[in-house]
Amino acid sequence: MSVVSHTPAAASTEALAHFQARLGFETDCADVWYASQHEARDFVLLDVRTPTLYAAGHVPGAINMPVRTIAEQRLADYPADTLFVVYCAGPHCNGANKAAVKLARLNRPVKEMIGGLTGWIDEGFGLERG
User: Fold this and answer.
1) Which terminus in the chain has less CB density within 10 A, N or C?
2) What does the alpha-carbon distance between residue 130 and residue 52 come to, in Å, rounded to a whole number?
């Protein structure tokens, strides 16, 4: 018996509920890229890193809103049902998670772009600078 199968997989109904629920909390770089290139962008992409890191390179179309600056007054121009997709540097960074918590506390719909900037680059997608 391998270390993989040592702990049995969850029942299919439990696995379905788990993985389906995750999609309500996250999206991935490829889906953000595809939506940005081929569909009407129905979300606001937030880069929650520092302005210096944002200027050095960010996902095209992302708005820089560092975690510490997320507040109701910064969101006032967006309708209450606006979906925010947040990202930070990558899997080694929890800035996107912190931003998602703040947005959720403000009753704003939010998803995390898993992989962050590292995932975006790994997918071969380009960056904007400035």
Assistant:
1) N
2) 9
Any idea what DSSP says for residue 69? G
Residue located via tokens 């040592």: 6
Number of helices (H), then strands (E), in the chain: 7, 5
**Environment class of residue 87 by beta-carbon count within 10 Å: exposed (0-12), middle (13-18) or buried (19+)?**
buried
User: Which member of 32, 44, 65, 88 is catalytic?
Assistant: 88
The CB density around residue 27, as the number of other CB atoms within 10 Å, is 19
**pLDDT tens-digit readout, 34-46:** 999 999 889 999 9
pTM above 0.70, yes or no: yes
Q: Tokens 């925010």 appear where? A: 84
Identify the pLDDT of residue 50. Answer: 98
Q: What distances in angstroms separate CA 124 from CA 11, 86, 121, one per listed residue?
A: 36, 19, 5
Cα 73 from Cα 118, distance rounded (Å): 30
Kindly state the average pLDDT of the residues 11-16. Answer: 97
Which residue, among 127, 101, 114, 86, has the nearest Cα to 30 in the 3D structure? 114
